[in-house]
Design brief:
single chain, 243 residues, alpha/beta, five-stranded parallel β-sheet, 7 helices, 33% helix
Amino acid sequence: MAEATAPVAAGTPAVVLLSGGLDSATVLAQARAQGFSCYALSLHYGQRHSAELDAARRVAQALGAARHEVIQLDLARFGGSALTDTALQVPTAGEQGGIPITYVPARNTVMLALALSWAEALGARDLFYGANAVDYSGYPDCRPEFVAAFERLANLATKAGVEGGHIRVRAPIIQLSKAQIIREGLRLGVDYSQTVSCYQADDQGRACGRCDSCRIRAAGFAEAGVADPTRYQSADQPASPRA
């Protein structure tokens, strides 16, 4: 089940991290359904392709974001991840255990810090984040402990928090399976054909069908019992996430 939330006054601002993938699109739809006026934030961090940012723009428009900002911050200058360093290969052999090479050092911490800054400037008290601790690739910044810790930091580090305006970091899909996330998004009208989840999508946004993200996404649609709208670079469908 998604986390329970109290009703909010229509138009209450919230900042939503939006990557252009399946999870963040679902979270944007949830925030909108709860009555928030959604300010979507994406990060051009030096990732291998811009297809997911194109997807984020489509999703933000389709789901009625009040505003969508794309921040340029080149984490590729630091390296350390197959998503930002083309000298490193994106794994395609299935989950291998441990934290994979597709982990981008501190990326989600950086993104939430930017979201926090924008939220405080807007007078918003809610940050929405598509972390998932069930069908994920072992990233440490997708765990409930991380989300809770960042919320504590947010209330220690900001004028809003110190003056009693409690800031909430909401991760409504963190305990859902990929199939549950997909069913929730479909209920809320998300068009998943607009999203891009692949770690190495081509310029047209077509998925490789081999990386962990493709495998987990395909398995989610299969488990949900709905057609997979993902466009693939070849006719081959992804194997099991743990193949």
